[in-house]
Amino acid sequence: MASRSDIPGHGTSGVGVIEIGVGELAIAEAPAVLMTPALGSCVGVTLWDPIKRRGAMAHVMLPTQTGAAPSANLDRFADHAIPSMVDGLVSLGSLRMRLVAKMAGGSAMFRADTVLASVGERNIVVVKEQLELLRIPLIAEDTGGSHARTIELDLETGVLVVRSYVYGIKEL
Amino acid sequence: MRPRDLSEVQIDALKEVGSIGAGHAATALSQLVDKTVHLEMPTFELIPIGEVPHVFGGKEELVGAVYTRLLGDIAGGMLFVAPRATAIALVDMLRSRPVGTTKSFGHEEEATFTHVASVLTSAYLAAIARMADLNLLPSSPAFALDMVGAVLEVVTAEVGMKADTAVLSRSRFCDLEQGVDSYVDAALFFLPDPDSLDVLLGRLGVA
């Protein structure tokens, strides 16, 4: 589990790009950049506090932990990763009402396979539900479709850069 | 059966399954492209799901991939992955053209590539089915051309609810005529569902 304490540069002004793997999350402050590569059916969720220039990113793999086998890493589930990012940011001194969210991913990489196609859709739905429950506004998204995305969140500006082979570079 | 509880004997049995399946797939590929295709010793790996996207080069590398769901006695899937250049070379070989003729990956190339993957998958499955006396059928194949990390997420999405470890049997094919640098660098992954491992091991007599 990528806990908040073992993220390099956490709580300080960590420089450089912090890469988040599948089913992990990280919290950092400007001037760091949070990035996660190759989102398919997974969803990249980012939270940003514009005053403290601090943010979090999670690479969510599955919607809910209900029915899952007991596991060491719950960060892969949307219904665990999002509250856990919010708790982390709040414990560092960010106000929940200041946080804004952006998200990308949730595509159907293999369109012809209906079971797999629905994983991305369910991820998107549950991420939005979680954000709504926590009353965090979702200010931008680039979701669905059937292409892979790599995302980077610049903690200085809050801009989320989405890269893909199909659409090139998008800024959210 | 949780993948991490597998014994040595059981892992050896699964390796053997991988070798037999991959051997048949390599023969099928040789016949399709009409040249000898060599097979690297198939590997059988238990990989933490967080590391699955790393198993085939850089996560953002552009690859052609075909996913086939398993129907019958075992649940799971088969995934055929080839870098874009290899995928296009395979299409040229199948059309009996010099490698390098095809430049872009259109609908027709997509269909040909999917067909190759489908033949390899069927050859692999037929061999396992015979060996373990299982009823195994491939579903209709699904194609994608995109970042390999995202393609491999099918593995994590399927396994993620059940286990922390993915069971992954990988076979790599290469064409030694062309020299080591230009080999047909493609991989076929056999991805049994964790719940189906018991069935497979039972039929192999090592449950």
Alpha-beta content class of chain B: alpha+beta
- Overall mean pLDDT of chain A stands at 87
Number of strands of chain B: 8
Q: What helical percentage do the residues of chain A reach?
A: 10-25%
Instruction: Give, in order, the helices and strands of chain A.
Output: EEEEEHEHEEEE
What multimeric state do the chains show?
A: heterodimer
Find the biggest chain interface: A-B, 34 and 33 residues
Rg of chain A from C-alpha positions? 15 Å
Main pleated sheet of chain A: 5 strands, mixed
Low-confidence segments of chain A, given as residue ranges, are: 1-14
* Biggest beta sheet summary of chain B: 8 strands, antiparallel
Class computed from helices, strands and strand pairing of chain A: alpha+beta
| Mean pLDDT figure of chain B | 83
Runs of chain B with pLDDT <50, length 5+? Answer: none
Q: In angstroms, what is the radius of gyration of chain B?
A: 16 Å
Strand order of the largest sheet of chain A: 1-3-8-9-10
So how many helices of chain A?
A: 2
What share of the residues of chain B does DSSP label as strand, in percent? 25-35%
Global outline of chain A: globular
What is this structure, in a nutshell?
Chain A is of the alpha+beta class and about 170 residues long.
Walk me through the structure:
The complex is a heterodimer of chains A (about 170) and B (about 210). In chain A, about 20% of the residues lie in helices and about 35% in strands. Chain A is an alpha+beta fold and about 170 residues long. In chain A, strands 1-3-8-9-10 form a five-stranded mixed beta sheet, with no helix packed on it. Chain A has a five-stranded mixed beta sheet with strand order 2-5-4-6-7, covered by helices on one side. Chain A starts with 16 loop residues before the first strand and ends with a strand. By secondary structure, chain B is of the alpha+beta class. Chain B has six helices and eight strands, in the order αββββααββααββα. Chain B has helices at about 10-35, 85-95, 105-130, 150, 155-160, 195-205; strands at about 40, 45-50, 60-70, 75-85, 135-140, 140-145, 165-175, 185-190. In chain B, strands 1, 2, 3, 4, 5, 6, 7 and 8 form an eight-stranded antiparallel beta sheet that branches. At the A-B interface, β3 and α2 of A face β3, β6, α4 and α5 of B.
